[in-house]
Amino acid sequence: MSTESPADGAHPSGASTAVPSKAGRNLPAAIAVGVGLGALVVASLIFVPKVWFGIVAAAIAIATWEVASRLREGDILVPRIPLLLGGQATIWLGWPFGTTGVLAGFTGTVIACFVWRLLDQGLGAAPRNYLRDAAITVFVAAWLPLLASFGTLMVTREGGSDWVFVLMIGVVCSDVGGYTAGVLFGRHPMVPAISPKKSWEGLGGSLVFAIIGSVATVTLILDANPAIGVLLGVVLVVTGTLGDLIESQVKRDLGIKDMGTLLPGHGGIMDRLDSLLPSAFVTWLVLTALL
C-alpha cells in the first residue's frame, strides 16, 4: 500500500493539510479509516459472507472511476462506461460460474472497450492513439476487476471466508511490518526513482511480519501445514510490494500523488487496493494448489 511522496512537479491530488508522518501519511486519519474498513470486512465475512461480493464490486467500481479519470486527465482516453459495467460483470459472474464466468466477463469487457473506443473517435476520423488507449484499457481491466475477482471467488467455496481472512491478515501484517521497520530503521532506499519512502529495511519488516501472520492464520484458521504459511507470507510480500510499485509508477507517469481523495490519510480507493489486488490472486492460487 502506497506511502510515497509526490513526484517532482506533481500536483498533490487530495493532499491533506495535516502534517504527515515520517512515512508520508496522515497517521491518525489513516488508522481510523483502516480500522473502519477492517471492521466492515470482518463483519461481512462473519455474518453474511456473500456480501463480500458487493463490497468488492463497489470498491472496484470506485477504483475504476478513479483510475480512468486520472488517465483522462493525462489525455489517455480509456472508455469508462464499458470498463465500469464490464468490471462488474467480471466480478459477479464468478458467483454462479466460477473462473469460467470471470474469464467470460473479462473477455467481454475487453471486446466492448475496443469497440467503444473505436466508435468514440469516429469511424471516419484518422486514428488518434487508438492502440495506446486500447492497450492501457486492457491493462486497467486486468489490473482491477480481473485480479479482484479472485478475492471474491474465495467465498464461493466452503470455508472460503477463512481464505479471505488469511489474505487480509497477511497483507495487513506485511503493510504494518514494512511501515514500522521503514519508519524506525529505514536507511537504504529500495527504488527511490519510483517510491522514495520504500526501504530495504522496510521490506525486511514486511517479510518478518507477513510470515508470522500467515503461519498463524494458516495454522489456526485453516488447520493446515505451517510451511504453507511461510510460502504464502513470502509470496504476499513479493506481490504486495510489486503491486504497490506498479501503482506508484503509474502515478509518477501521470504526475499525481494519489488516485483519489475519498479516504482521508490514504488517498483514493485504488491507493488502498494496490497491494491487495495481486495478493488476492496469489492467495487464491497458493491455497487452491496446496489445500
TrEMBL record:
<feature type="transmembrane region" description="Helical">
    <location>
        <begin position="101"/>
        <end position="119"/>
    </location>
</feature>
<keyword id="KW-0443">Lipid metabolism</keyword>
<keyword id="KW-0812">Transmembrane</keyword>
<dbReference type="Pfam" id="PF01148">
    <property type="entry name" value="CTP_transf_1"/>
</dbReference>
<comment type="pathway">
    <text>Lipid metabolism.</text>
</comment>
<keyword id="KW-0472">Membrane</keyword>
<protein>
    <recommendedName>
        <fullName>Phosphatidate cytidylyltransferase</fullName>
        <ecNumber>2.7.7.41</ecNumber>
    </recommendedName>
</protein>
<keyword id="KW-0594">Phospholipid biosynthesis</keyword>
<keyword id="KW-1133">Transmembrane helix</keyword>
<dbReference type="GO" id="GO:0016779">
    <property type="term" value="F:nucleotidyltransferase activity"/>
</dbReference>
<comment type="pathway">
    <text>Phospholipid metabolism; CDP-diacylglycerol biosynthesis; CDP-diacylglycerol from sn-glycerol 3-phosphate: step 3/3.</text>
</comment>
<feature type="transmembrane region" description="Helical">
    <location>
        <begin position="228"/>
        <end position="246"/>
    </location>
</feature>
<keyword id="KW-1208">Phospholipid metabolism</keyword>
<dbReference type="InterPro" id="IPR000374">
    <property type="entry name" value="PC_trans"/>
</dbReference>
<feature type="transmembrane region" description="Helical">
    <location>
        <begin position="163"/>
        <end position="185"/>
    </location>
</feature>
<feature type="transmembrane region" description="Helical">
    <location>
        <begin position="131"/>
        <end position="151"/>
    </location>
</feature>
<feature type="transmembrane region" description="Helical">
    <location>
        <begin position="205"/>
        <end position="222"/>
    </location>
</feature>
<comment type="similarity">
    <text>Belongs to the CDS family.</text>
</comment>
<feature type="transmembrane region" description="Helical">
    <location>
        <begin position="27"/>
        <end position="45"/>
    </location>
</feature>
<keyword id="KW-1003">Cell membrane</keyword>
<keyword id="KW-0808">Transferase</keyword>
<keyword id="KW-0444">Lipid biosynthesis</keyword>
<keyword id="KW-0548">Nucleotidyltransferase</keyword>
